[in-house]
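Figure 3 (text version): structure tokens given as input.
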């Protein structure tokens, strides 16, 4: 937990950090089960792994992408009538909790799913494997640059060379999706950084994209 316990993060039985956005489907499953709901909308921010989004869809949920931060997530949960949601930063939101985030509630839901997995003979990492194994993810890369707008412009020029663009979101920075992965770049809401996330089907592609995009950001 963080200091005020509105965030919860996990390590698995091997001591490996579990990226919080991968746990959004786990929270959704537990919340839907607890509430006897079937399907429903689940919010996630623009940085969320495609593996988590695909899992939500397979579980019968409707993912709703929102900007980063509780100032956006809480109203989005209300307006979309979502049952819950989460962010890369470890915040998880619940309609039953006044559409606010709770690290304690998230932890109990995730631990409940871990207990079910253990009863079925699965470890925490085995429970997470179907979600985390789909794509190679860079995590959030931070760059302190003088001119953020110019850096984003340089980066998007490189993005145009990565393949055919499937979709683009500009609700918070720019997220460009391709068949083989996606790129998200945004200005930090709280710190003097430009934040980059890259996700690809293959590790070799991820390394190539990260190297090219990082050079573009640095200029």
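Below: residues designed for each position.
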């Amino acid at each position: 937990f963080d200091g005020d316990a509105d965030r919860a993060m996990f390590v698995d039985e091997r001591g490996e950090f579990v990226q919080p956005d991968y746990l959004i489907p786990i929270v959704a499953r537990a919340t839907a089960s607890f509430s006897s709901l079937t399907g429903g909308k689940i919010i996630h921010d623009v940085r969320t792994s495609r593996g988590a989004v695909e899992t939500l869809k397979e579980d019968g949920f409707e993912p709703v992408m929102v900007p980063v931060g509780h100032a956006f997530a809480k109203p989005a949960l209300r307006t979309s009538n979502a049952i819950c949601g989460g962010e890369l930063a470890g915040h998880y939101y619940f309609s039953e909790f006044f559409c606010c985030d709770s690290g304690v509630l998230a932890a109990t839901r995730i631990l409940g799913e871990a207990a079910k997995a253990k009863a079925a003979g699965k470890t925490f990492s085995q429970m997470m494997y179907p979600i985390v194994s789909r794509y190679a993810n860079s995590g959030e890369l931070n760059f302190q640059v003088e001119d953020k707008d110019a850096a984003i412009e340089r980066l998007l020029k490189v993005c145009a060379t990565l393949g055919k663009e499937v979709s683009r979101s500009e609700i918070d920075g720019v997220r460009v999706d391709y068949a083989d992965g996606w790129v998200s770049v945004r200005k930090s809401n709280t710190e003097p950084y430009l934040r980059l996330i890259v996700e690809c089907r293959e590790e070799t592609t991820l390394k190539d994209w990260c190297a090219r995009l990082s050079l573009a950001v640095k200029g």
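The CA atoms of residues 44 and 65 lie 5 Å apart.
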